[in-house]
Design a protein that fits this description.
binds calcium ion; single chain; alpha+beta; 3-stranded antiparallel β-sheet; 3 helices; 4-stranded antiparallel β-sheet; elongated
Length: 178
């Protein structure tokens, strides 16, 4: 007859084995659930991207994490800034060549120049972003910025994507970024 101690250790080993089996099956169940969720997320990402592209067609562009869009209206720098702010965004402020190209494509389609958010209203000659901070990326046209007449404190983007400092009171296509 087996000793009680032997029986006890045999019982413990059985419990340990069952625990391992249970953990394995639980792990496999979780793994398949994660795989199913991952597939659902991938499917959802495709739907979101399609919706975004459809929503942006033909008056917007998506680049990186930013969306640029116009409603086709025009305004001065101040009214453009207010329009974008009311929409929950801000006046387009491209920070690299890809973003600049996205804005350029929108204005080329509408055949109208647009104000950008950056300006040197606060400090002549030092262009800054709307939220502050001196600009990094620039795409000035030849001979610009020239502060012509001593009163060019805003930036307009030409149809070719180049920048010109310009008076803030012209009417330009309103392009916002979100
Ligand atoms: Ca200026
Ligand atoms: Ca100029």
């Amino acid at each position: 007859m087996a000793q009680p101690a032997v029986l006890f250790f045999w019982f413990l080993s059985q419990v340990a084995e069952m625990t391992v089996l249970f953990r394995c099956s639980e792990f496999q169940r979780l793994e398949s659930e994660v795989a199913a969720l991952r597939k659902q997320l991938d499917d959802l990402a495709v739907v979101v991207t399609k919706n975004r592209d459809a929503h942006l067609f033909p008056n917007g562009r998506s680049v990186g994490g930013k969306l640029f869009k116009t409603d086709g209206s025009q305004g001065s720098f101040e009214s453009s800034k207010a329009t974008c702010s009311q929409a929950g965004g801000q006046l387009a402020s491209p920070k690299n060549a890809s973003e600049n190209a996205a804005v350029q494509q929108i204005i080329a389609r509408h055949n109208k120049a647009a104000y950008l958010g950056m300006n040197d209203i606060q400090s002549e000659g030092t262009f800054a972003y709307l939220c502050g901070g001196e600009i990094g990326y620039t795409n000035w046209a030849d001979e610009e910025p020239n502060n012509a007449g001593g009163k060019e404190d805003c930036i307009e983007m030409y149809l070719d994507g180049k920048w010109n400092d310009r008076s803030c009171t012209e009417r330009r296509l309103i392009v916002c970024e979100f």
